[in-house]
Design a protein that fits this description.
It contains four helices and eleven strands. The chain has 164 residues and is an alpha+beta fold. It folds into two domains: 29-62, no CATH class; 63-164. The two termini are 23 Å apart.
């Protein structure tokens, strides 16, 4: 399902908002609380993942973000391309990393999996769709250009392409 950014709104071609789709990396049942991810040390308590320190005796449970990183199964793809990118690569990547830092501080499951430097573009993969949309939106807001958002029907996946 293809969407285009129109001002500050995201509009699908059929006029409907993007649907919430079941994510295979979300748990069928919540982990036993309190739980702590053995890799990133995020804590599951009160029904959500946070950066609060886990109490002694917390159960070990791999968080969905670490699971996606381990499987290299991104929920978001952000492609940055164009001649402007090459001229401003360092500052754009700095913006991307800052965006991740802010999101990750509040939402432990929103992280960058990888930043790949390809011959004519940079590909940023993320553990969540929200971070991918946020990164693409921040780059678009800061540097203008063109932004396309594509939501995969039946999957919890977003592909954003920014060019200038």
């Amino acid at each position: 399902m293809k969407t285009k950014r129109d001002g500050s709104r995201i509009v699908r071609r059929d006029g409907e908002p993007p649907e919430r789709v079941a994510d295979p990396y979300e748990f069928a049942r919540k982990p036993k609380e309190p739980a702590q991810c053995p890799e990133c040390r995020a804590t599951f308590h009160g029904g959500r993942w946070t950066w609060v320190e886990a109490p002694p005796g917390a159960h070990e449970h791999l968080c969905p973000a670490c699971h996606r990183v381990r499987d290299n199964a991104p929920a978001g793809y952000v492609t940055l391309t164009g001649p402007f990118l090459a001229e401003h690569l360092d500052e754009i990547l700095h913006l991307v990393r800052n965006c991740e830092s802010r999101e990750k501080a509040e939402h432990p499951l929103e992280r960058i999996i990888a930043i790949e430097h390809l011959p004519d573009r940079v590909l940023v993969t993320t553990t969540g769709t929200h971070l991918a949309r946020e990164v693409a939106g921040k780059v678009h807001h800061a540097y203008q250009g063109e932004l396309d958002l594509n939501y995969s029907e039946g999957e919890n996946l977003v592909r954003a392409t920014w060019r200038r």
